[in-house]
Write a structure and sequence with these properties.
By secondary structure, this protein is α+β, with helices and mostly antiparallel strands. The protein has six helices and seven strands, in the order E-H-E-E-H-H-E-E-H-E-E-H-H. About 40% of the residues lie in helices and about 25% in strands.
Amino acid sequence: MTYLYMREVPLTSLGTQLDRVEAERATAERLTGNQVTSWRNVYSARAGTVTFTSWWPKLSALEEAVDALWANPGYREPTEQGRNVAEGAPDEELLQIIYGDIPSSAPRYVRTLTGLCAPERHEIAIATGVEIAKKAEALIGSTVQFAQSLTGSLGLVHWLTGYDSLADLQEAVEKFTGVTSGWLYYHDRSNNAF
């Protein structure tokens, strides 16, 4: 199994904080020995939010890394000072990747679709979620990861797809919703899983 750790921080003025964001990302990467990527919300809700992500093969490795980060004053103190420019408390989420390859390099944009498993339909929803990811890959020609949240709302699932440009995203959306794709029919017969 692979896990994706995400930490979101809503900033009051992202433009003036980019150096601080990059320094925090680089410090976390250096101290954990694991790749850490920072993302900015653009063209969507919560513009100005920064999300730090990292992939982990084991939860125990993530736990050790986070403990080491917060124990290190070189990371803890600047991060705590950065809360003065945050618009709210950080939010963290831990995902378990159920299907899909981990990208070898970070794409420029990531589209995330989120669903909630219907009550008492979790197993069917997970199986359907994998089917939807495979169908989406076949339609758009891009890798899709399907994941379930291990923290937060019970039954929350995500489909993650990376794109190198907005033109790539546009092309995928047009393929996804095209009249001849059969996608809408496929989606409608998802066994009341979501």
